[in-house]
């Protein structure tokens, strides 16, 4: 049994409210662009808002709320539509390990992608491009300037695996 302190409960309520606000905002934006609101669309957006991290189509299809409601093809089709309308960002390796994340204005992360296994990691170093972004906005007169960064490399696990290959097991 998990004991939930009143503080945790309050945090949960706040989190739920935050998710609902985010989902409401996304749905409103889509509606204003003429996209029809369906139950599948609602479920998908809610699931993505709940996790706020990059997720694969398989992860989304197998999630508790979408399981049995949407097949991978439907999830894919919806994601493509959401990406087209700028509310979803596509990350990772094209064609191999594709991830999707809901775009949240004011909240931004850059990512590191392993070119071997396709694993994706959020970069915890403060974004170095933010100052450039502000400068660019000031100089160009552009509004709502944003950027998306993906760094590519070989993750520690894959690197270690490659090193072990061809070497006799000694330990
Ligand atoms: Zn890897
Ligand atoms: Zn950044």
Features:
171 residues; 2 domains; 5 strands; binds zinc ion; globular; Dna Ligase, domain 1; two-stranded antiparallel sheet; alpha+beta; Arc Repressor Mutant, subunit A; disordered C terminus
Could you characterize what this model shows?
It is a single chain. By secondary structure, this protein is of the alpha+beta class. The chain folds into two domains: 103 residues, Winged helix-like DNA-binding domain superfamily/Winged helix DNA-binding domain (Arc Repressor Mutant, subunit A, Orthogonal Bundle); 64 residues, Dna Ligase, domain 1 (2-Layer Sandwich), CATH 3.30.1490.190. 46% of the residues lie in helices and 13% in strands. The protein is built from six helices and five strands. The strands form two sheets. Strands 4-3-5 form a three-stranded mixed β-sheet, with no helix packed on it. The chain has a two-stranded antiparallel sheet with strand order 1-2. A hairpin with a 3-residue loop joins strand 1 and strand 2. Helix 1 packs across helix 2. It is globular. The N and C termini lie far apart (40 Å). The C terminus is likely disordered. Bound molecules: zinc ion (ZN) (2 copies). The site of one zinc ion has 6 residues, from loops. The site of one zinc ion has 7 residues, from helix 6.
Q: Outline of this structure?
A:
The protein has about 170 residues and is an alpha+beta fold. The protein is built from six helices and five strands.
Structural class: alpha+beta
Bound ligands: zinc ion
Overall outline: globular
- Which sequence of SSEs, written as H and E, runs from N to C? HHHHEEEEHEH
CATH topology of the largest domain: Arc Repressor Mutant, subunit A
Distance between the termini: 40 Å
Estimated share of beta-strand residues = 5-15%
Strand order of the largest sheet: 4-3-5
CATH-defined architecture of the largest domain: Orthogonal Bundle
Q: How many DSSP helices?
A: 6
Radius of gyration using CA atoms only: 19 Å
Q: How would you state the average pLDDT, rounded?
A: 87
Question: Which percent bin holds the helix content?
Answer: 40-55%
CATH C-level label of the largest domain: Mainly Alpha
Count of discrete domains: 2
Low-confidence stretches: 167-171
CATH homologous superfamily annotation of the largest domain: Winged helix-like DNA-binding domain superfamily/Winged helix DNA-binding domain
Summarize the main sheet: 3 strands, mixed
